[in-house]
Amino acid sequence: ARFPGLGGQVRSRRALLKAASEALGLPLDKLTWAHSLVATRAVGAKISACALLPGIDMANHDLRPNAELVVAGEPGVVTGRATLTTRGDIWEHGSAGLLALRDIRAGEAVRISYGGYPNQRLLLDYGFDLGDVNPKGDREDEQEASSVAPSSEWARSD
User: Fold this and answer.
1) What is the largest distance, in Å, between two alpha-carbon atoms of the chain?
2) pLDDT tens track for 6-40
């Protein structure tokens, strides 16, 4: 089997969603739908948080991206009012967007890096794998695969 740990990760994720559903009093089908929506569309932008940024989820993954996601400032860290990007642009804190790494031709797809993940993680979270060209290979190591918040950290925000 190409992804021997994938079945276990899927079962683990289902069990986690079931436990969260029960602990939070949420319908399992709605929590599963919401998790799928966030897991396939959220971006991390090299910060310790993730966000849903409309439109950015339309950019495909590439090992050689032509754009990058830029988030001005780190959430919760006051370091000033603006961020200077790698290209010399000044962005207000709290703003986010795609920054071209080179000139992009009309009609050319905008491609970003989703991160340096092995194929197993790409398949589980994004629904595709890169095949043999992925420098991270197919399999995810066990420690990366099991990084999930314990149930004691679950809380409803409503």
Assistant:
1) 51
2) 888 889 989 999 999 999 999 999 999 998 888 87
Residue with tokens 């990084």: 147
- CA-closest candidate to residue 111, choices 119, 120, 99: 99
Could you write out the DSSP letters of every residue in the chain?
---TTHHHHHHHHHHHHHHHHHHHT--HHHHHHHHHHHHHH-B-TTSS--B--TTGGGSEE-SS-SEEEEESS-TT----SEEE-TTS-EEETT-EEEEESS---TTPPPEE---S--HHHHHHHHS---GGG-TT-SPPPHHHHT----GGG-----
Q: Any idea which residue has 């603006």 for tokens?
A: 82
Burial letters 26-37, b for 16+ CB under 10 A, else e: eeeeebbeeeee
Q: Beta partners for 82?
A: 92
Structure confidence by residue, pLDDT tens digits, 72-100: 765 555 555 566 666 666 666 667 778 88
